[in-house]
Amino acid sequence: MNYLKFFLFVIFASAIFLTSCKDDDDVACAESTWYEDADGDGLGNPDVSESACDQPSGFVADNTDTDDTGGSSATGTPVSAFDEFNSNAVTVSFSGDEITIESNALPDHTSPYWATTNSLYIDPVIADAGQMSPGAITSGSYTVTVPADPQIASSTSATGLGAIGIAVSGAPIFNDEEGPNISLSEQVASGFDYAGGHMGPTGYHYHLESSDVTENTTLSYDDESLVGILQDGFLIYGRKCNSTGDHPADLDASGGHTSSTQHSNGDEFYHYHIINEFYVGSYILLFGVDLKGTPNTIM
Question: Which residue, 143, 150, 40, is CA-closest to 100?
Answer without folding.
Answer: 143
